[in-house]
Amino acid sequence: MAINIRRREFIATLGSTVVAWPLAAHAQQPAVPVIGFLFVGSPPNILPPPGFSQGLKEAGYGENVAIEVRSAGGDNQIDRLRELAADLVRHQVSVIVTAGGAMPALAAKAVTSTIPIVFTMGPDPVKYGLVASLSRPGGNITGVTNLNHDLAGKRLDLLRQLVPQMTMVGYLAGVPGLAVEDQKSEIVEATRALGLQVIVLEVRSERDFEAAFATLVERRVGALTLSASPLTLSHLDAVSALAARHSIPAIYGDPWIVRRGGLISYGADFLGARQAGAYVGRILKGEKPGDLPVVQPTKFRLAINLKTANALGLTVPQSLLVAADEVIE
User: Fold this and answer.
1) Which pLDDT tens digit goes with each residue over 271-306?
2) Domains of the chain
3) Predicted local confidence at residue 270, as pLDDT
4) What phi and psi values does residue 77 have, to the nearest 5 degrees?
5) For 49, phi and psi rounded to 5 degrees?
6) How many CB atoms lie within 10 A of CB 134?
7) 318 to 157, 162, 299, 322: CA distances (angstroms)
């Protein structure tokens, strides 16, 4: 059921969209289960990678499923999530899989208490009222969380090792909300603990990134970190390009952007797509989502792009190279 590049590029051109396609010839048969995907952000970055297929196969379902995709797009489309979730319910999907933060999961939970929901998200699902507990979620929902937003202090420490002279850090915050406010509080506390200053810049749409970077340059920040919000996550390529253009070292949560030219990332070794696929398969075979514990990360990965570091005039300490799980040369 792998989603090929052409399909991904096609979806990416649609922005806010509704898409459906079969994953196998069997998908034309009524008995084939239909998996609904609900997400925010840029489809190429948010759509489940091949790991989802692997997890589904491990649970015994192979490619014998069909999918319905509902995307709230990138900017200013978050209000559409509940409407899109309701549309999946009307299409009588067997399971709803959500990605792109807590909001898609909350939207799905708001419109159905019977269709199983499997989320992939960074924030704590208990804090958002999605599940009763991580070990016993209860109700019709479970999933995987990478808890990436709890890593502000570690990321700042890594930046300081790369840029030892920095005294001021820029922080790109997404559209205000509970998750963004929590992350903002954490970054403020982490910078204070490290004796650094922080400039918090709010970005509400893609158009705000240029102005935000102009401010970062004007204030002479030493490095940049950013919130794990749908807006920032769906525009990481743009953020990375702006950071390179303005020679600002930036750290991210996922190694894929480092492979595409970003400087450094540190985050959970998150096999969320595969685990979500496995949970969907188990649910389709009769297990109750409320009995499946929320999956949490057990390992964190560090990735560094040496070519980008050289372009920024940075010397990567040997200690970081030794610690790195992935070094792009």
Assistant:
1) 677 899 999 999 999 999 999 999 987 778 899 999
2) 5-146+270-291 (3.40.50.2300), 149-268+300-328 (3.40.50.2300)
3) 56
4) -115, 5
5) -75, 180
6) 15
7) 15, 11, 21, 6
Which tops the pLDDT comparison, 175 or 65? 65
Residue keyed to tokens 């609900």 = 38
Enter the tokens of residue 135: 């070990």
Residues 309, 263: contact at Cβ < 8 Å? yes
| Beta carbons of 98 and 104 less than 8 angstroms apart | yes
* Least confident residue range of 59-68, 90-99, 172-181, 214-223: 172-181
- Stated as kind and residue range, the H or E segment containing 279 is helix 272-284
User: Across the chain, what does the average pLDDT equal?
Assistant: 83
Global pTM reads 0.71
Nearest to 101 by CA among 68, 67, 146: 146
The one-letter amino acid code at 189 reads: E
